Amino acid sequence: MLTLDAVHAHYGSAHVLHGVSLTVEAGQIACLVGRNGVGKSTTLKAIMGVVRPSAGTIAFKGERIDGRPPHVIATRGLAWVPEDRRVFASLSVEENVRVAGQATPRSSPARIDEALAFFPDLVTRASQRAGSLSGGQQQMLAMARALASQPDLILLDEPTEGLSPLIVETIRAGILKTRERGAAILLVEQNFALALGIGDVFFVLSRGAVVYRGTREELLAKPEVIHEHLGVGKSKQPRA
Predict the structure, then answer these.
(1) pLDDT of res. 187
(2) CB atoms within 10 A of CB 8
(3) Phi, psi torsion values for 216, nearest 5 degrees
(4) Which of 64, 73, 141, 189 has the fewest C-beta atoms under 10 angstroms from its C-beta?
């Protein structure tokens, strides 16, 4: 579904991505993990067209999308939930979701209503201004907005960062439910235990390049990779 082949990216003179290659298949939860500052968020931005790759190719459903603007990429069935959520603070919860859905021809009124109802806590706050929501509620809203565009693949950047354990569990359930409804997910997540519990395939990023790829079971069998590149000691068996 999604293929990155030797993707490089720069911020000015800073060379951030050094030939990132990865593949996400339909229906997968693929996790992009690594220490802070290794290029995980930049990889998502390059896929979504927010950062223009300086070399390499990005293909989605067999069509090259590298170099195209974000709004064009979104119409192909990609949605991005950035780390800072970027909700429209002055609009209501419902208005946020409807604006996102109406921005792409892939959506429909029924899909917009379905996305709003994805997190029950948002339904009771449909008329509340998004700027008055808690951080966890804003994260739910950011995910609901992404779902309103009826994507085939969602890029999630640190969706549980700074959230309480109860909200983390709600977001975890939302990610799994998203996959059940047919969307693949490329997840950047610092909570390694959470990633292990839901991920199908893992790409370990270090210094702007993928240094390891494998299934959950294969990664768990490589404690030296986990320790060196993730700074995590002996891992507990993840919850299914």
Answers:
(1) 98
(2) 17
(3) -55, -50
(4) 64
